Amino acid sequence: MIHPTAIVSPKAEIGKNVEIGPYSVIEEDVKIGDDCYIDAHVKICRYTTVGARCRIYFGALVGAEPQDHRFYRGLRSSCEIGSDTVIREYVTIHRPPFEFLKTSVGSHVLLMAFVHVAHDVIIADRVTIANHTAITGHVQIGEGAVLSGYAKIHQFCRIGPLAMIGAGCLISQDIPPFCMLRETNFITGPNTIGLRRAGFSNEARLDIRKAIKMFFFDGLNAKNALEQIERSGLNSPEVHVFCNFIKETKRGIMPGNPKYTGITDEQRDELELRA
Length: 275
What we know:
Elements: E1 7-8, E2 13-14, E3 19-20, E4 25-26, E5 31-32, E6 37-38, E7 43-44, E8 48-50, E9 55-56, E10 61-64, E11 78-81, E12 86-87, E13 92-94, E14 102-105, E15 110-111, E16 116-117, E17 122-123, E18 128-129, E19 134-135, E20 140-141, E21 146-147, E22 152-153, E23 158-159, E24 164-165, E25 170-171, E26 179-181, E27 187-190, H1 192-197, H2 202-217, H3 222-231, H4 237-247, H5 265-274
Parallel strand pairs: 1-4, 2-5, 3-6, 4-7, 5-8, 6-9, 7-10, 8-11, 9-12, 10-13, 11-14, 12-15, 13-16, 14-17, 15-18, 16-19, 17-20, 18-21, 19-22, 20-23, 21-24, 22-25, 24-26
Antiparallel strand pairs: 26-27
Helix pairs in contact: 2-3, 2-4
């Protein structure tokens, strides 16, 4: 059902059972999958693809031109939204400033109100991003990561799969997979609840915890810490993912909380409970 006040280009491809609300604008070269809900006053810009069963709420702007001096009108870059993704009120998502590149938001993603997704960002599946978080250009966010509200992420940073970010964090370097970054802007340990919910085995969770402790809290530099992890016999696939992510960093890794260095797991847990 398309509301009579909506403006839908005849060159847009609209799937079956799509609802488009009052005063929404769907530009040409847009593809919207089946069973989508588009609320009132939404604008979906050209060269945008929206997967099936997405819900896009009031005032959202999807696939807009980037805030970048290098962009020029007529440039053909794109924006792609996966299936079953929810985009809440006043979210903004921008396409790249370079020809044929893509801003990508995965499937089963939740972007809460006023989230900004800048040009060239890649968000994997099942990511949750809370209100007012600002994601600048070229950021990559791994599958299952959770970002609390009002976080600010510097361009080119990477956030690993199943990482958990506290509210109001200022992220200027990479955050490895499975890590918890608290509101203090320090990594404090594994995302224990997230790993449990994701169905990781006890053995895998223990290996991840040991690897994070060695890297962040044994007082070693990055090179020596990685070597220690490799010598430790932690051979689970998750530890390899953790280590490879760190080896590939270009911006460096967000620091661990120095007050947790050299203490036991039990002492760290007690400090966490007090935080």
